[in-house]
Amino acid sequence: MAYTLGTVGTAVDSNLLASELRVVLGRLVRRLRTEHSFSLSQGAVLGRLDREGTTTIGALATAEHVRPQSMAQTVSDLEHSA
Predict the structure, then answer these.
(1) What is the spatial distance between Cα 71 and Cα 57, in angstroms, rounded to a whole number?
(2) 14 vs 65: which has the higher pLDDT
(3) Out of 16, 42, 47, 59, which could bridge 55 as a Cys pair, Cβ 3.0 to 4.6 Å?
């Protein structure tokens, strides 16, 4: 896929790039879920850990708006699938 660059070397349409990125990420998430039983909550936890670094189960639960017990199960599932 090629993109046209503007006169100052920036992409002409950042909205187009963002839209295409959403499509690609959507396909990736669907593929991961199909091939590896990868849930959306697991993806959200991994994404948050990647962005924010090490944290506690309680902090993850608060950030994701779930009970600590549910987050503990999500983290346990991730640990066992690794």
Answers:
(1) 6
(2) 65
(3) 59
* Cβ neighbours around 41 below 10 Å, total: 16
For residue 74, what pLDDT is reported?
Answer: 95
CA distance 59 to 40: 18
Residue type at position 6: G
Distance CA 44, CA 70 (A): 13
Contacts of 4 (CB under 8 A, 6+ apart): 11, 12
pLDDT in tens, 34-71: 877 778 889 899 989 989 999 999 999 999 999 999 99
Contact 39, 28 (CB under 8 A): no
Cβ atoms 21, 15 nearer than 8 A: no
pTM above 0.70, yes or no: no
Domain boundaries, the chain: 1-37, 39-82
